[in-house]
């Protein structure tokens, strides 16, 4: 919640609350939802982005969170961006429709990488890269994804964070 608070200080409603979309798998979605539920005002303001794990289960968890806090789920679009293709997006859309949620999709690497070639011959080749923090002031950074293969950070730091948030080892 601290990160969301700091983000709101920079991107005030006047400057762009459209950017209030939370990537929930920084320390795992379960940890995020556990903390998010304790801050109902943030739940009402922020939208969600699913980028790892089972998207259909994510829909169920998001719907349960909104229902438990009396938040109108139909006003809370979720951005799905994890290894999508048209078939997967259609299945997610169906699950969202059934749950009364809105869905938005970033297919492949093109959520923020949809540039056209300067010579006019179609789209540019996707960079297909991810930039992650390694450390801040010599303190190691980690990401605890819902997909174990996407976890990043020094082994000891990952273990520390998993212990801190009671995230089971896979």
Model description:
It is a single chain. This protein is 39% helix and 10% strand. The protein has 170 residues and is an alpha/beta fold. The strands form two sheets. Strands 1-2-3-4 form a four-stranded parallel beta sheet. A two-stranded antiparallel ribbon has the order 5-6. The longest helix is centred in the middle third of the chain and has 14 residues, at 55-68. The two termini are 26 Å apart.
Order of helices and strands: HHEHHEHEHEEEH
Low-confidence stretches: none
Secondary-structure-based class equals alpha/beta
Strand percentage lies at 5-15%
* Tally of individual helices: 7
The total strand number stands at: 6
Rounded radius of gyration (Å): 17 Å
Distance between the termini: 26 Å
Describe the largest sheet. Answer: 4 strands, parallel
Dominant shape: globular
Largest sheet: spatial strand order = 1-2-3-4
> What is the residue-mean pLDDT, rounded to a whole number?
86
Give the helix proportion (percent range).
25-40%
């Amino acid at each position: 919640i601290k990160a969301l608070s700091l983000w709101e200080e920079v991107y005030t409603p006047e400057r762009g609350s459209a950017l209030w979309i939370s990537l929930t798998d920084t320390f795992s979605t379960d940890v995020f939802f556990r903390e998010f539920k304790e801050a109902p005002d943030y739940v009402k303001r922020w939208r969600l982005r699913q980028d790892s794990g089972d998207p259909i289960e994510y829909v169920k968890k998001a719907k349960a969170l909104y229902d438990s806090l009396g938040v109108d789920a139909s006003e809370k679009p979720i951005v799905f961006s994890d290894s999508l293709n048209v078939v997967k997006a259609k299945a997610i859309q169906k699950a969202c429709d059934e749950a009364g949620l809105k869905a938005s999709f970033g297919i492949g690497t093109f959520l923020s990488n949809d540039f056209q070639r300067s010579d006019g011959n179609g789209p540019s080749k996707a960079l297909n890269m991810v930039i992650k923090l390694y450390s801040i002031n010599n303190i190691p950074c980690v990401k605890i994804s819902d997909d174990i293969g996407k976890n990043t950070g020094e082994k000891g730091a990952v273990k520390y964070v998993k212990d801190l948030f009671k995230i089971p080892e896979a």
